[in-house]
Write a structure and sequence with these properties.
By secondary structure, the protein is α+β, with helices and mostly antiparallel strands. The protein contains three helices and six strands; from the N terminus they run H-H-E-E-H-E-E-E-E. Strands 1-2-4-5-6-3 form a six-stranded antiparallel beta sheet. Strand 4 and strand 5 form a beta hairpin.
Length: 135
């Protein structure tokens, strides 16, 4: 089983329309095509949709190290608005990996390459192998 196949079981992200497109050691990329269902009352992309996009990219990058990993904390800073018709990309990159923890930066950009949000998070690595083939 590949990482992409494994993360298709992330039901919330799949229902939200998030697609995992790339996974390599310590890195991952995901996208979301913003539709009407992703908008808040002000007509902009709802923050939870952006968080879900970033979180799936993080999960794939962190778990690509071979041990089941879960978020310890996360911070999301919104920098630019987006809306219906936009395509958002989340690119996760590993900044630190220790014996039981890791730290990741996820940049969320739009189809023009403009930074929409920045997501920083730490993870805990369990003593349990991931159930998919490593990239």
């Amino acid at each position: 089983m590949t990482a992409q196949e494994f993360f298709k079981d992330d039901r919330f992200a799949v229902q939200a329309g998030v697609e995992l497109t790339e996974v390599s050691p310590g890195r991952a990329r995901a996208c979301l095509r913003v539709g009407r269902q992703h908008l808040n009352a002000g007509g902009r992309t709802q923050g939870g949709a952006i968080f879900t996009l970033a979180d799936l990219a993080l999960a794939a990058a962190a778990n690509s190290r071979g041990r089941l990993s879960f978020s310890l904390s996360a911070s999301l800073t919104f920098l630019r608005g987006s809306g219906e018709g936009d395509t958002l990309w989340a690119e996760a990159s590993e900044r630190y990996t220790g014996r039981t923890t890791g730290y990741y930066q996820v940049d969320i950009t739009n189809q023009r390459g403009e930074l929409v949000a920045a997501f920083q998070t730490s993870v805990f690595r369990m003593d349990c192998p991931v159930p998919f083939d490593l990239p």
